[in-house]
Design a protein that fits this description.
alpha+beta; 9-stranded antiparallel sheet; single chain; 8-stranded mixed sheet; 430 residues
């Protein structure tokens, strides 16, 4: 009998505790509920996916040097690219020494010696590269940004040499302690023996046989203005609506603003009064940018860190570029153009805090309505096209890419050659 009474008393105490908790949380006199209900905010539907920064830190391409002025190039997500990069991520690099880049003929080294070269485009901060490669901490170059990594067997093939090139273009760092053997490099070079041959010309590579890609038409969806407002404003109900003469729509809560270009399916969010949260560190800025996108719209596909650059004072810009791929051919960047902004997510930052955010409202549903095999120009035909561009400015790089456009069916991705010029322009060859 006593046990029964104890059980009843215990159950009553638990029930009273639950009732008291309810009133404390939801019914505090003279104040709003502590916990917001779904009706207080616009319910945000699932948008893009969350991603880890490490997933976006990969080379734009891997060049393989076969010796005797023979080369080939592997692109992201292709089988040999993944195999080479995964192996290198497990190797250790230490004992750095610094040299002036002009002291060595790098073109001759790449032409004569067997080796591999990871290219990172505009540069990868060392602090981020350490997240995907086993690079020992070293004050000598920890504040650097790396544009490429060259690994090759020495003349008598009894030593592997590893060089990290500064994106500033003036210095190079040699890792004198790297756990790579001559045989390791030979095995990776062997992957390129039967692949498309390339010729090294003034620092970039021209294929001697056609490069194959898949022209694709993708079905799409569109993030709504309500979704973006709900994602970017703590209380969208207090935003004011302004319609500009150019047709764009602006939503503002007096501190932040969201500009929506309906004709281009593009948004530009600004928060100029955002308080600074730290120092202007490129690596931390990228990590903060990834976290911000994870929380405010997510990622609608595969992205790569394209650019991280100071824009003056405490300001910093971070750009992520979208990639699209089809099976064995690899993945290629989607080129953002002024007439149709798609393929890039751009963040403006001040001391680690996001003050600007630009992205497309378009996303792929994963379904396609067209797929066609395409062969890009190569050899002498491509050389003739490049020769015309050289009259405008020196060519910095050449790579396969996708040109996006909209049709009634959805998003069209057309394979092209993208040519980056020294004057900063990007030209497209069809």
């Amino acid at each position: 009998m006593k046990e029964r009474v104890k059980s009843l008393m215990l159950a009553l105490l638990v029930l009273c505790s639950l009732v008291q908790s309810y009133f404390l949380i939801y019914r505090l006199p003279g104040s709003d509920p502590v916990v917001k209900t779904e009706s207080d905010y616009i319910k945000t539907e699932n948008m893009g996916q969350s991603a880890e920064a490490e997933d976006m830190l990969f080379p734009s391409q891997i060049a393989v040097h076969l010796g005797e002025d023979r080369h080939t190039v592997f692109y992201p997500d292709s089988a040999f690219y993944n195999l080479i990069y995964s192996r290198l991520k497990g190797r250790q690099f230490d004992g750095f020494q610094r040299y002036g880049v002009e002291n060595i003929n790098w073109t001759e080294i790449r032409s004569r010696h067997t080796g591999i070269e990871l290219q990172f485009g505009d540069g990868m901060p060392v602090a981020l590269l350490q997240k995907v490669m086993q690079i020992a901490p070293d004050p000598l170059f920890e504040g650097e940004s790396i544009s490429r990594v060259l690994i090759y067997n020495s003349e008598n093939e009894d030593q592997v040499r590893v060089f990290f090139f500064s994106s500033q273009g003036d210095v190079v760092y040699e890792a004198t302690k790297a756990d790579l053997t001559v045989q390791d490099v030979r095995q990776q070079v062997d992957f390129g023996k039967d692949w498309v041959p390339y010729t090294l010309v003034n620092g970039y590579y021209i294929p001697e046989k056609p490069v194959r890609m898949v022209e694709t038409g993708l079905e799409i969806g569109l993030f709504s203005t309500d979704q973006m407002q709900s994602s970017l404003f703590s209380d969208p109900s207090i935003t004011r609506y302004i319609r500009e003469k150019d047709g764009s729509e602006i939503y503002t809560d007096s501190k932040r603003s969201l500009q929506v270009r309906q004709d281009r399916d593009w948004i530009n969010y600004t928060d100029p009064a955002a308080p600074a949260a730290g120092e202007n560190n490129p690596g931390r800025n990228v990590l903060s940018g990834v976290d911000f996108v994870n929380q405010h719209g997510g990622w609608n596909g595969q992205y790569r860190l394209k650019k991280t650059a100071d824009t003056g004072g405490e300001e910093h810009t971070v750009v992520f570029q979208q990639y699209y791929g089809e099976g064995q051919f690899g993945a290629f960047p989607i080129i953002d153009i002024s007439s149709f902004h798609y393929g890039e997510i751009t963040l403006e930052m001040r001391m680690g805090t996001i003050t600007g955010y630009e992205r497309s409202l378009i996303y792929s549903t994963g379904e396609f309505w067209e797929k066609t095999m395409v062969e890009l120009s190569s050899g002498d035909e491509l050389r003739e096209q490049l020769a015309r561009l050289e009259k405008e400015s020196e060519i910095v790089s050449l790579y396969p890419a996708y040109l996006p456009s909209l049709s009634k069916e959805g998003l069209q991705l057309k394979p092209i050659w993208a040519v980056e010029l020294k004057n900063g322009a990007t030209r497209m060859l069809f």
